[in-house]
Automatic annotation (TrEMBL):
Record-given protein name: EF-hand domain-containing protein
Pfam families found in the cross-reference section: EF-hand_1, EF-hand_8
Keywords: Calcium, Repeat
SMART domains: EFh
EF-hand domain location: 5-40, 131-166
InterPro entries from the UniProt entry: Centrin_CML-like, EF-hand-dom_pair, EF_Hand_1_Ca_BS, EF_hand_dom
Species of the source: Streptomyces ochraceiscleroticus
Signal peptide positions (record): none
Length: 185
């Protein structure tokens, strides 16, 4: 199935969440990934770690509207892509869940508190998310739209919106997880 550009991006997200390659997500596995991301804020930064967890909780509720708290609740690749397309991709849902995570990460990783991410700070996200850091420099260059050597807060949010909402193949935000490949299933 060739899929749309957004389907390719959602498929890449699914692959990132489904590290074991089992073809489905459970609440436990989704939150295992979330805990890894919640570990990015420095020790003692409980506010941003909690904001990351809360964002992932909202995201899971969008993916599994019934709450999906049981151990047998599963969402397969096609369900994930369809639900991402219909629920998570709305601007309001995106802001409430995914951008809440992104904002907390920006605050936590911005070690000098200048409201920007340096290349090294940005690479930490790649490392923790299990994305090949070989692609991080090119992605960083594209996301740094004003060429000042840092990704500002507005650039960061715009990149995330592009990743989740844009069908423009040339949008810099498509690079968030490295080069896109056709969906696997």
């Amino acid at each position: 199935m060739p899929g749309t550009l957004r389907d390719q991006k959602f498929d890449a997200l699914f692959e990132m969440f489904d590290r074991e390659g089992q073809g489905y997500l459970t609440r436990e596995r989704f939150f295992r990934f979330a805990e890894g991301i919640a570990g990015l804020p420095p020790r003692g930064d409980n506010e941003n770690a909690a904001a990351v967890r809360a964002g992932f909780e909202k995201w899971w509720k969008l993916l599994v509207p019934s709450g999906g708290s049981g151990p047998d609740t599963r969402i397969d690749r096609q369900e994930f892509i369809a639900r991402m397309r219909s629920l998570v991709s709305s601007r309001a849902n995106l802001d409430d869940a995914v951008l809440a995570i992104a904002d907390a990460l920006m605050r936590a990783l911005d070690t000098n508190k200048n409201r920007t991410l340096s290349l090294d700070e940005y690479r930490r996200i790649y490392t923790r998310a299990g994305v090949d850091t070989a692609h991080s420099e090119e992605a960083f260059r594209r996301l740094d739209r004003d060429g000042d050597g840092a990704i500002g807060h507005d650039e960061w949010r715009e990149a995330l919106r592009e990743f989740f909402l844009s069908d423009d193949a040339d949008a810099p935000g498509n690079q968030l997880l490295g080069p896109l490949r056709p969906p696997t299933g």
